[in-house]
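Annotated sample (chain length 47).
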Amino acid sequence: MNEHWHAGHADRAQTLHSPRWLEREHREHGVHVYDLSEAPDPTIARR
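Output written by the structure step:
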């Protein structure tokens, strides 16, 4: 179970450091949908 949790933590960290996430458009109103399901950015190291 710990391995599963650590994998999820690593995925979250990778997503939140992705340029696609950091450089996303910010809108004040409305529904926001982000598709981050593409292959991860190879320039971001996985821990």
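Annotation: The mean pLDDT is 77.
Annotation: The CA atoms of residues 10 and 47 lie 6 Å apart.
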